[in-house]
User: What shape does this take?
Amino acid sequence: MVPCRKRQLTDAALLRTFAKSNLGAEMVRSSVFLAGVMGLLAMGAGPGRAAADDTGPGKAPPTTNPADLKELRPGILPGYLPREQAIDSLALLGPPPEAGSAQQARDEAARIAALKQRDTPRGKVAARDAVYSFPRAVDAFSCTMGVAISETTTPHLNMLLRRTLTDAGLATYKAKNSYNRLRPYVAANDNGACFAAHEERLRKDGSYPSGHAAFGWAWALILTEALPSQANAIIQRGYDFGQSRVICGYHWQSDVNAGRLVGAAVVAQLHANPDFMAQLAEAKKEIAAARASGAAKPDCALDHAAATAATAVAGR
Assistant: This one.
């Protein structure tokens, strides 16, 4: 039996080795990667669930009122994790591909292929996925969940997503700031991004790893736990959410792969946080109630159009 401390160090080393390997980039969607994520969740689940259970029946659940939390900047709420406990993305990840490398050539090929989807229904979904401000950010997963997520109808679920966006997104910045990789639309200089208004603001913001991919993958893992009956669809949506960053020209493929790894590590860490676990428990109840009641469903026209177009292309 491996002592707990040694086991933690071994798992961390394995994660770093995996992230830095070429194989790691290719296996993000594979069962091996997902099994590793589930293993991390299992490691974190014990202490986290115990802490959540210790809150007792008389303790009020975490707040759903944004006004109760001090914003980090306008519209951005603090996460559940103290900033000093953030995952060290610089230690976790290897460097981005070097200019002239085979990996960079693959990134460039993926960029060019993704551009072809920009003016399709899938491109419209990618543009929708680029919005990370609330209340619109949750639209990316509402259709897959079959639940209209909002501050009024599902307040705990909405707060869960707002705060974990911060946890996963901010965890990417140690590596982002260190490598300060140029974004595809800046490096290629042959096409803009999905939103011209974003281009100047993101021009000096490091591309590697992707913060969007990190919180999108974190959301997918959390929502899969909240609604396991929709696990396959939610995981697919989380994967596609990351790919939207490549379609929009905001990120290289390797940025997105690395962001997913950071997101998975953050979710494992969150399972030891009692407030997260308590809010997740309340969110599960909201989801079950909303699906059982036949409450107003989200607008899925955009998602359906993209799925229909993809099926048509696959059938050619």
In short: The CA atoms of residues 9 and 126 lie 37 Å apart. Residues 1-55 have pLDDT under 50 and may be disordered. The chain has one domain: 79-314. The longest helix spans residues 31-53.
